[in-house]
Structures
1.
Amino acid sequence: MWAAAGNSARHCRSYYGQAPAAPGRGSRTMPSRVFCEKDPMRHTLLTCTLTAAALAALALPAAAQQSTLGRNLAATCANCHGTNGAARGEMKPLAGVSAAKIVAAMNDFRSGNMPATIMHQIAKGYTEAQVEQIAAYFAAQKPAAK
C-alpha cells in the first residue's frame, strides 16, 4: 500500500503527529491507525459516527426524564391526595381514576365550573401537556384497598 502511494505519506500522520514509516524502512513501525488528510470519507465517517454517539447519549437521559416527569409533577398532589394518589379520609383518591376523568376535572377547576378551595389556583399552574402526564401517572396507579 505504501509503495503504491508514493509520496502521500507526508500528507498522513499517526495519532502521535509523525508521518508513518513505510514497511521495511527505518526502525519505526507502522502505526495501527493513520489519519490521512487526503481521505475525506474516513474523516466524514468518523465525524458522523461520533456525532451519532453523542446524540444517542444525550437522548437517553431525556427519555428517562420524560418517563418520570409525570411522577415528579404528581408529587405535589401528595399533600392532599396521598402518596401515589391513594388518599385517606375525606379527600378524593386519584389512583386508578381514568386519565380522561382527571383531565376533565382539571379543566373544570381551571374554568371555575367545579367548586374547590385551592384547586382553581393549582390547576391554572399546569400546562395541558403537564396535566395529561399527571393524569396518565395516576391512571396507572393501583387504587388503595378499602
2.
Amino acid sequence: MSAARLPKRLWTHAVETAVSPEWAWRRLSDIRAGRWAPDDAPLALHSGETLTGAEAVELVGGPGRFAVTVTRKSGEVGRCTLEVNAPVRSVAVQGEWWFRGELRVEPAALDRSRLVLEVFNVAPGWGRHLAPLVARGVRARTRADLEAIAARLQAEGTVTASAS
C-alpha cells in the first residue's frame, strides 16, 4: 500500500506591509458566505487566477471552510475551496486541479506584517507532472497579486487609522 503524496511546494513569495499583523489578519480572515462582486470578494481570492474574468463570486459554508463558485463573464463557472486556519493565521485557496495557495500573516519588525504566499501542486496522479508546466505562467502573476493585496491592506489600514 503506498502512502499518500504530500503536496509539492512550487514557490514562495513574501512581502511586508506597514500594518500590524493583528489588523492584517482581521482583514484577511473577514470572510462571510454570500454573493460578492469580484472587487469585494475576500482578499485571499485575489491571488492566482481565481477572479480572472469574474462577474460574480458566491461563497457557501463557513466559518472555517467555504465552497466558492466564480461565474465568469464568458459564462464559464469555476470552483475552488477557501479554508481559514486561525491558529496559524492562514487562508488557503485550492482550485479544481493543481493550484493551492496558502496566504499567511506573520509579524515583522516595528509592528509591520509579513505576508507569505506559498503555492503548492496538489494535482492527483499523472497530472502532478503536468502541473509545473502550466504553473510557469502563474508564478509572476501570484507575486504581483500578493503585492497588490499588501498595498490594499496598507491603504485600508492607513484610512482606518486616520478615521479612528
3.
Amino acid sequence: MNLKKNLSILLTAGLLLASLPALAQKKADMRAKQGEDVWLIINYVKDEAKADYEAFMADTFFALLQKSKNEKTRQQYQQTRYLKPARQNEDGTWTYIFLMDPVVEDGNYDIPELFMEVHSEEEAQKLMEQYESFMARPAEFHGLLQSEH
C-alpha cells in the first residue's frame, strides 16, 4: 500500500512538472501575428543618468509589472521586450527600446496609471517625474502592424 501511494504521488508530481512549460508562457512565445499592432518606443537617456535609469527600471518599473495583481498588466509585461544599448550614441545619450509585440488589446500602457497600481497618485507622480528626469529628450513612438514576414 505504501508503494502504491508513493507511486501515485510520483506520477502526479511528474504530470504537474511536465505541464509547467505549457502553463508558463515565455516572452519568446509571445509575438504578433500578421495584422496585429506592435508598438516601438525609443527612449534617449542622459549619459549621467544611465546607471540610475537602469536601477529604476529594474527595481521599480519592471518589479511592479512582474508582481502586478492585474492580469492585463502582467500580460503587457510578457508581451513587451526591453532592449538596452550596445553602445553610446554620438550625442552622448543612450538608446533604450520598448517593443510591445503584440500590443495587449485594451491594455493600459499609461506609466503613471501603472505606478498607481501600487502607489498613491502623489507617489506615482513623483515616480513619473523621476522617470522623466532620466530622459535627454521626448520619447519617439511608432505604431506598426505585423507583416506576413
4.
Amino acid sequence: MKRFFRSVLVESILIAAISLGVAMAANAVRRDGLPLARSYQPRDELTEQAFTRVSRVDLETLKALIQAEMVVVLDIRDKKSFRSGHIPGAKNLPLDREESAIVSLLEESEAGRTIVICCSDPACLDAASLAARLLQREAYDLMIFPGGIKAWKADGMPLETGGGGF
C-alpha cells in the first residue's frame, strides 16, 4: 500500500511538472503571452491618486482625438505585444524603460498634445501606475484609455504592426 501511494505521488508531481512546462512553452509562443519577467505589484498610494486625478477616455472620443491629432497614444505593453499589433501611430513605452523616456513625453505634453496611456485591457493597472509617475513629474495633460488594445480590436479598428517607441 505504501508503494502505491508513493507511485501516485511521484506520478502527480511528474504530471504537474510537465503541465507547467507545457504552459510556459505555450505562453512563450503566444503573441499575447504574459510577460513573466516583471513584477506585478498591487496598487500603491500614487496609483490610487492617478485613478482619481487622471480622466478616462472612451473609444469613440479616442478615435476623434487621434483623427484631430490632439493626442499621443502611449502603448505600455511589452515590445513583442506592441509590434504584433497596436493603435496606429501609437508609441511604445514598456514600463521597464519608462525613466529614459519621461523627458520626451513631457515635451509632447508641453507641445499641447494630450498623452493617452493604453494598456492591454481593463484589468491592466500599469496605465494608472505610469500616470502616477508622470503626475509626479508635473505632466498634467494625461488620460487613460481603460479598454486598452482589447477594446480597440473588439471594435474592429485597424491595427498597425512593427513600429517603435521612445
